[in-house]
Amino acid sequence: MSQHTVGINQFTCPVRIPEKGGGVQHTVATIDLQASVTRGRLESCVSTMVTLLGRFLPDIHAGIFPELLSEICCQLQAAEAWLTMRFPYFIAKKAPVSGTISLMEYQCAFTASSAAGGEPLLSVVVPVTTLCPCSKEISAAGAHNQRAEITLAVRPLALIWLEDLIAMAESCGSSEVYALLKRPDEKYVTERAYAQPMFVEDVARKVAQKAMTHTDIAWFTVGVESFESIHNHNAYALVDSRDLKPDAPRG
Length: 251
Known about the structure:
Elements: E1 3-18, E2 24-38, H1 42-56, H2 65-76, E3 80-94, E4 101-113, E5 121-131, H3 133-138, E6 145-156, H4 162-170, E7 175-176, H5 183-195, H6 200-212, E8 217-226, E9 235-240
Antiparallel strand pairs: 1-2, 2-3, 3-4, 4-5, 5-6, 5-7, 6-8, 8-9
Helix pairs in contact: 1-2
């Protein structure tokens, strides 16, 4: 019997995400949920999915994906089910000199499939600063710099906190980005970026090197996009761990 992929997209709801420090963060998630079902199950698909999501709210996090996707498959007699949950995650961050605290927002996502047992892929989008090495080399004073975004997606072998993935990526740019800086902080981050010029390829390579040594990461991709300040285009680089070693697990 033929299968049809149906589901719901852009389902927004409040969720609670466990924090590394032991707390719980309240945020708002956008969920896409699909299943491969036979024609006879199409009419009940949406109501079943919304009901099941409601049962787990507001504690829809990566730890319950296996149970949720298993329930979807069971109730809809689905061959497979997929879920993607995107949400902003906030971390209180201290400015490097003044110690001023402000909230930094990071876009995060969990993606899972019942075919993989419901174990999720984790991804984080982390802003950093990149300063152009060739601009620094050819200029008598200064060098152009810009904000860039690192998108790191991993298949974990064990629990990996979002905070740790964000910190891993954040440490690999020319400088970190902050929501609030005082004058001494601005001086610090400007000079730090100038001392650490990087192309997007350099940033991607540095993140990949750190991810390769993490014992709880089975597979990863890292993409870096630089929003160029003197070009009418962006610069981009991508590294997939499957291309780095022949025995790397398939993503």
